[in-house]
């Protein structure tokens, strides 16, 4: 079983009609069995008369309970009946209750759905449209309270997001909605540790949408930002500049401001500190433009403080951070706040106020774990290792450095080639080695590298490890999955677009053997189609 989800949506989203329940499959009288992997029921609405229906959200297709204008009680009774018959399995999850369905039932329902021409496409389109509306709502509320809960739900619904994106980018006439969805998810790709997967979907979406649209302007700067996070700086610059040019042609000041942020970040990553300083001084002095996301407004100030800190202007950096903290506090925001705190830690490190620097860095790390900000965690662990070494806690510094190196390995082991980051890392290692000796340093470093993310953060905070919200109830990170050598070969060939027979020919194995490998890969990764394997392979590179 897998934990993909359905949701409760408004009745206007419900398709008319349904499939006939086969006699061999139990269920409440008159209820169509949805061929889906799961379902999320949000908290009840304040309006007890609100009408709802069950709408599909998984990549396996699906149907809803038949008929328009369903009452909420009818839907809940039907779902309860399916649970009683063990057709659905009920379990707690982020954002409400989630349901799971056996693969055989999902597959049966999908086959039934495909009997009527156009039904599968209509249901998948409704699923995509619902996901798009929900993601847009998440983005509008991102700079505010509830970020950890939003992240937990998005991570739990990764398969639903992938299904919506794959449908949009595989079916003629749907590509613009796919680009809109991929671009709207910028905050998830960037803030929550998924830059490579985001880049995979954006590459497909941009290729399918060459027209000069606001969606393309958004997709270009997001792709530029994600390319920068994976150290493809030339590609990042090209996308960001193209986004800025297109936004100006379209008269879209907000997307132009977003593109300018990416251009400044690339200067910072590329060690052009004076250029980055001038850039962010200009954007911060200009202030927000209409439609600009407040997260990017806050990040402009973060990057200005970063440039000031690296250039040794600690007092100015602290002033900028205090203004940015005020913005975050007024909105109850945590993610940008975590970066502001990291910049405060950097500024106090420049002042050699190690106690205050460590306090700010630890609080930044705690907030970053709450939203699974892998890049931010790696950056902050580096800073904490440096602070620990300066305070004489050399073994602790070595453990933190080992953990930081492991986290960076999943992002970019070269730390984007940035001189500032690599110099700080090298200084931390040399200081710890002098104090401990090479053998003791290596042992402590290996220990840090063996810790899971929550354990590592717990060690840095000197607290017991606490799992990421929802982690025990949703699939683990794809990077934790281990394929055999042969399965890895097959997965790469699937990503190249080869069919099973072509894979068999390439590896000189039987077609049945190739099919078995693909099935095991799907099972291990919790996927249901080959395009998801391709996305996963791309994300591992």
Automatic annotation (TrEMBL):
One Pfam family it belongs to: GerE
One Gene Ontology term from the biological process aspect of the record: regulation of DNA-templated transcription
Domain HTH luxR-type, residue spans: 476-541
InterPro entries in alphabetical order: Sig_transdc_resp-reg_C-effctor, TPR-like_helical_dom_sf, Tscrpt_reg_LuxR_C, WH-like_DNA-bd_sf
Alphabetized Gene3D superfamilies for the sequence: Tetratricopeptide repeat domain (1.25.40.10), Winged helix-like DNA-binding domain superfamily/Winged helix DNA-binding domain (1.10.10.10)
Bias type Low complexity, positions: 33-44
Residue ranges, compositional bias (Pro residues): 23-32
Region (Disordered), start-end ranges: 1-53
PANTHER family found in the cross-reference section: HTH-TYPE TRANSCRIPTIONAL REGULATOR RV0890C-RELATED, REGULATOR-RELATED
Protein name as catalogued: HTH luxR-type domain-containing protein
Protein's organism: Streptomyces swartbergensis
């Amino acid at each position: 079983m897998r934990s993909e989800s359905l949701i409760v949506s408004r009745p206007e989203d419900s398709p008319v009609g349904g499939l006939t329940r086969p006699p061999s499959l139990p269920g409440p009288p008159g209820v169509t069995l949805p061929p889906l992997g799961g379902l999320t029921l949000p908290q009840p609405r304040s309006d007890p008369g609100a009408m709802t229906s069950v709408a599909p959200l998984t990549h396996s297709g699906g149907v809803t309970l038949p008929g328009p204008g369903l009452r909420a009680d009818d839907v809940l009774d039907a779902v309860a009946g399916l649970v009683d018959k063990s057709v659905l399995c009920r379990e707690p999850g982020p954002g409400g209750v989630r349901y799971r369905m056996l693969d055989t039932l999902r597959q049966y329902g999908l086959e039934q759905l495909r009997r009527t021409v156009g039904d599968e496409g209509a249901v998948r389109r409704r699923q995509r449209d619902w996901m798009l509306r929900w993601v847009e709502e998440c983005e509008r509320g991102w700079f505010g309270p509830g970020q950890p809960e939003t992240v937990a739900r998005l991570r739990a619904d990764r398969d639903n997001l992938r299904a919506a994106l794959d449908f949009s980018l595989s079916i003629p006439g749907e590509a613009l909605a796919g680009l809109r969805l991929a671009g709207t998810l910028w905050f998830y790709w960037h803030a929550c540790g998924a830059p490579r997967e985001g880049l995979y979907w954006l590459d497909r979406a941009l290729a399918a949408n060459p027209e000069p649209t606001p969606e393309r302007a958004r997709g270009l700067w997001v792709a530029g930002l994600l390319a920068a996070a994976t150290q493809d700086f030339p590609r990042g610059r090209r996308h960001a500049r193209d986004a800025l040019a297109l936004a100006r042609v379209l008269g879209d000041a907000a997307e132009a401001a977003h593109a300018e942020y990416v251009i400044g970040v690339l200067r910072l990553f590329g060690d052009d500190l004076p250029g980055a300083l001038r850039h962010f001084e200009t954007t911060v002095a200009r202030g927000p433009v209409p439609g600009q996301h407040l997260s990017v407004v806050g990040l402009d100030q973060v990057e200005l403080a970063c440039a000031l800190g690296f250039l040794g202007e600690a007092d100015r950096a602290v002033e900028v951070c205090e203004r940015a903290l005020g913005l975050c506090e007024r909105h109850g925001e945590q993610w940008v706040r975590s970066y502001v705190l990291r910049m405060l830690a950097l500024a106090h490190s420049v002042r050699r106020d190690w106690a205050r620097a460590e306090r700010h860095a630890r609080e930044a790390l705690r907030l970053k774990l709450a939203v699974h900000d892998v890049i931010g965690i790696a950056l902050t662990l580096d800073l904490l290792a440096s602070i620990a070494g300066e305070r004489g806690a050399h073994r602790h510094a070595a453990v933190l450095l080992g953990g930081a190196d492991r986290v960076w390995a999943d992002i970019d082991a070269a730390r984007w080639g940035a001189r500032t980051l690599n110099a700080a890392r090298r200084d931390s290692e040399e200081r710890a080695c002098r104090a401990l000796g090479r053998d003791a340093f290596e042992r402590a470093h290996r220990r840090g590298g063996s810790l899971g993310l929550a354990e590592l953060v717990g060690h840095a905070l000197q607290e017991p490890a606490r799992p990421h919200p929802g982690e025990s109830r949703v699939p683990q990170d794809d990077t934790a999955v281990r394929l055999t050598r042969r399965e890895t070969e097959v997965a790469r060939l699937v990503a190249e677009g080869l069919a099973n027979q072509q894979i068999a020919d390439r590896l000189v194995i039987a077609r049945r053997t190739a099919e078995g490998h693909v099935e095991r890969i799907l099972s291990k990764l919790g996927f249901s189609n080959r395009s998801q394997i391709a996305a996963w392979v791309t994300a591992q590179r």
